[in-house]
Predict the 3D structure of the following.
Amino acid sequence: MGYCQVLAENREFRRLWFAEVVSFLGDFFNTIALYAAVVELSSGTLAFSVVFVAKLLPVFLMTPISGPLIDRVDRRKLMIVTDVARAACALGLVVAYRMGSLWLLTTLLVVMVCFSGIFIPTKTAVIPQVTQQAHLGAANALSAATWSVMLALGAAAGGVVTALVGIEPALIFDALTFLVSAGLLVPLPALLPQSQGESLGPVDRSFVAGLRYLRRHRYLSAIISLKPCMALGGGVLAMLPVFATRVFSEVSGPGAIGLLYTARGLGALVGSLAVRKVLGDAPSTMRRVISPAYVVVATSWLALSQAATIWQAAAAYFFSAVGGGALWVVSATLSQLESDNAYRGRVFAVEWGALTLVMSVMAALGGVLVERYGWSVRDVALGSALLLAIPALLWLGVLTLTGASEAER
């Protein structure tokens, strides 16, 4: 299924996709500006990990709330409300920066990410509602590619703009993008969390019922563990601004941070669009891609631990994102095919919660090891490479245990 064809034939998905384009662009302006603010307000490596964790951990804490909420209310309205709330938080970041308060900046960021903890799994849950099943692979690839392109463009532009005109304009721009995104979502139809199974009786919308659903569907549970396992490399991702500003003597500042984020974005673009285009959408093929994709990520972190220049570091971040992009699309498509619409809010809330918890723990651990125990950021990259070999081996076990019949689903 061609990408242009999916956009042309699915008006509702097209609106959702345009909203993603705008929102992601602002997100990466925000990211570069925040890290530049941390450089100004703090001299410690641990501060980078604190901000990194603040952008992730609240999503996990919101999981018991966001999952049942997504499966109870109109998902279109929920996305609009969370977009508006995030715009208000982004403007609050400007106030915190003017006050020179890293504590207030981090607090407002946490509140903002709490709303993202509702929006992100909601968006993932509605993709099957606004596309045909035959379009799911292409739709998820486009969604992942949007993140990738906006990471590349947003990080590059954010680095340049932040360096030229300062941090505040980047944060204000981020607030405006959330409002534009909300406006694009307004014309969507009601996106109710209902399924055909409800004709047999009411569905329990509690968080515990969602966990029971996952326990009954172990194959689905294995699939939604793929992204959290990828987050075992969270320590080296948190160290990206350190690699950009404190490792290589020839470069430093927002422009260098933007370069490494741009490399990640381009790699994820290749991993999401190109890999899917070559391999196709057959579930059996997607399942076989998973372990090799983990190996690509692990090998990239190993190369990063030995990088001698910023360009070698950029190449490592690029190839790690190629493997990560492929994993992202495969896990999203397989999990949407396997899950019931009435439970998708809780399924994807659990997935995102686990992802952000693992990422936060690994990022915090990386910061502590560097700041308190004398590790170098290169040591963190090497440790991440070793950890990523674990899920590569575990997935081979999943393929074996599920048997040939599951493998051909």
Remarks:
- The domain at 3-186+205-407 is CATH 1.20.1250.20 (Growth Hormone; Chain: A;).
- The two ends are 19 Å apart (CA to CA).
- DSSP finds 19 helices and no strands in the chain.
- Residues 404-409 have pLDDT under 50 and may be disordered.
